[in-house]
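User: For a teaching handout, I'd like to show students what a predicted protein-ligand complex looks like in C-alpha cell form. I'll give you the sequence and the SMILES for S-adenosylmethionine. Please answer with just the structure.
Assistant: Understood, here is the input followed by the structure.
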Amino acid sequence: MSQLSAQQVRELDPLAFLAVLGKRVLYPYGRESAEWLLEWAALKPGERVLDIGCGVGTTAIRMARETSADVVAADISPLMRERARRNVARSGIDGVRVEAANILALPYDDNSFDCVVAEAVTIFVDRDRAAKELARVCKPGGRVLATEFCWRRSPTAEARELFLGRVCPAMQVDIVQECLSIYFRAGLTDIQTASGPFAVMTARGFLSDEGSHAVAVMARVMTRPTYRRKMTWLMPRMARAVPYLGYIVVGARKPSLSADRSRSDDRTSAPDSID
Ligand SMILES: C[S@@+](CC[C@H](N)C(=O)[O-])C[C@H]1O[C@@H](n2cnc3c(N)ncnc32)[C@H](O)[C@@H]1O
C-alpha cells in the first residue's frame, strides 16, 4: 500500500486520518450507533443493501456477516475504497462488493435497494440532495438509515469555531430537529431516531470501539513524525468540542406506492418530537 506524503497527511480530515492509522470504527459515535442502525435495518438474507460512504467497510462487512445480505459498499474516496477492499478480503466474506460512488449522484437505478445506509456521510455534502438520492435508490417500502453529527447542546463560539472552523471545515452540524427535517423533506416516513454522545475521539470511546486493536493504532501514530504532529494538534481541539457534540441515528422508510398516495394529503410538515 502506498504511503501518503506529509502534505497529504496534513490535509486528511480527522476520520480519514484515523482510517490511515488503522482505526476500524470511524462513525463518530462508537459502536452503539451501529447497533441501532443494524436493529432498524432488520436485514434478511439476500436483501440488497447499499452502504454509501462506507469508509473502511466496517459496517458493510458486519451486515454481510451477520445477515447474509448482499451488500454494495461504496465510497467517493479511493483511499477509503482501498482500505475497504483490504478489510473485505481479510474478512473472508463474499457478500460485499466495493464500488466508487458519490452520494450526490448515485450510479444506481431508482428503487434498487431494500435498505440504504449512510453513516456519517451526509454531513460532508449538500444534505437535502444526498437524502433525496438515498430515497431515490431505495425500493418503495424499503429502509433508509443514516447517522449524523448533531449539537447536543448549544456550543460556545469557541467550540464551534474550533470544530467547524479548524478541525472539520467541510462539515455541517445541526441541531437534532434539523437533521430529522432533511429526511422528511426527502419524502421518507416512519422516521425514528436515537441519539447519544460523541465517542470516537474520546479515550473511553476509542478503547471500547477498538479493544486490543487500540494499541496497534496508537503504535502506528508513533511510526511517523507527521502522524505524531497531526495527533498532537488534533486531540486538544477535539476535546474542547466533544462535550457539545452528539450523534443521531435516523431510521426511515420509503413509502410504498399505495401509502404514498394516501399520505401525501395529510403530512405537510416535519414531526416535531423525537425520542
Ligand atoms: C466519517 S467517514 C464514515 C465512514 C463509514 N460510513 C463509517 O461510519 O465508518 C465518511 C465517509 O464518507 C465518504 N464520503 C464523503 N463524501 C462522500 C460523497 N460525496 N459520496 C460518497 N462518499 C463520501 C468519505 O470518503 C468517508 O469514507
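For the handout, you might add this sentence: Confidence is low (pLDDT under 50) at residues 265-275.
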